[in-house]
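Lab channel / #folding
Pinned by the channel admin:
"Please post every new chain as: sequence first, then the structure tokens as a reply. Keep commentary short and put observations after the output so the thread stays searchable."

First post following the new format, from NK:
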Amino acid sequence: MVLQVNAKMLRRLGYTVIEAGEGCTAVDLFKKNGAEIDLVVLDMIMPGMGGGDVFEQIKKLNPFVKVLLTSGCDINGEALRVLSEGCDGFIQKPYSLEELSFKIKDIISIV
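Reply from TO:
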């Protein structure tokens, strides 16, 4: 349900969305579509493979990909580690459409 809501929000903002309900699926989709992906919105807790592991895998495939990390928990532990390893931003759930829009624009504008 969270994935569907986030995908709907991103589409409403005008973005093309490729959805992955599991960490392994996200990595596979990035392998196939990475050249077309400008930003990955990554949840810390995902079935199969957690967000931290997904982050490591996609950064190996493209070290320059922009990643926005999201979590329902405070930024701590694993989220801090991922941010320290080059993740481009963090947004805590729940967030509004406006908050998501500003955060994405900030990340995409980083050169």
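NK: The first strand starts at residue 39 and ends at 43.
TO: also worth noting, The beta strands are 39-43, 66-71, 89-92.
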